[in-house]
Amino acid sequence: MTERIYLSSEILAGDVEVIDCVPRNDGRYSVRLKSTLFHPQGGGQPSDIGWINEVAVVHVAMEEGEIIHQTTAPVTQGNAFARVDGELRQLYSRLHSAGHLIGHVVELAIWHPIKAHHWPGESKVVFKAREDAQNVSAEDIQVICKNFITEDLPCKVTQRDDGLREVSFGHFTPYLCGGTHVTSLGQLGDIKVQAAQMKKGHLTVYYDVV
Ligand SMILES: [Zn+2]
To answer: How far is the CA of 7 from the centre of ligand 1 (A)?
Structure first.
């Protein structure tokens, strides 16, 4: 099983060991690493992209329990140098962390987050009403989010003994999460809550970071 360095470190470039590299049916190559800096697609967050040596890594996915790096050309077994596209990673971490923040803020109005999708241009968090759930508007959510961004609440990651990982911002109750995050909410910059749509006991909050 590939060690997931991205879970405990923000490091974006370093030495890795290529275990194997096999051609795929789609013309790409499947590369397994002993340990990886790349966040695979999942948990509502897109895959990192980048390079192993000079070969492009165009997608990273969990396939049959293994982290598979899809490359455009073969890479040789043994030691290699890996780099994650840092600009995209930062955008994905900001969008994902903004989803956490919206989750915390809307929970204050007694809604329970059930689903999240943190992709550029289509980010949203879906909530289910609890008893006594209060009406919330996009404007309210945005104002409260901005207050916490100004407070620059720090991200805290706790690796539990059972293998799960808890991620919290400031005083909020942690979420179980395997994604990547900003180190504090100030890095989110400006958050734009585009809409808060209520339908059949569900509330969907659409947002972007700018
Ligand atoms: Zn997360």
So the answer is: 10
- Structural domain includes residue 157: yes
The CA 5 to ligand 1 mean position distance, Å, reads: 15
pLDDT digits (tens, 9 = 90+) for 181-202: 999 999 999 999 999 999 989 9
The tokens describing 144, both together, are 């409260």
- What distance in angstroms lies between residue 180's CA and the mean position of ligand 1's atoms? 6
List the shell of residues around ion ligand 1, using CB closer than 5 Å.
167, 177, 179
Q: How far is CA 2 from CA 36, 66, 91, in A?
A: 7, 7, 25
75 token code pair = 């890479």
CATH of residue 42? 2.40.30.130
DSSP state of 140: H
Output phi, psi for 149, to 5 deg: -65, -40
pLDDT in tens, 33-89: 999 999 999 999 999 999 999 999 999 999 999 999 999 999 999 999 999 999 999
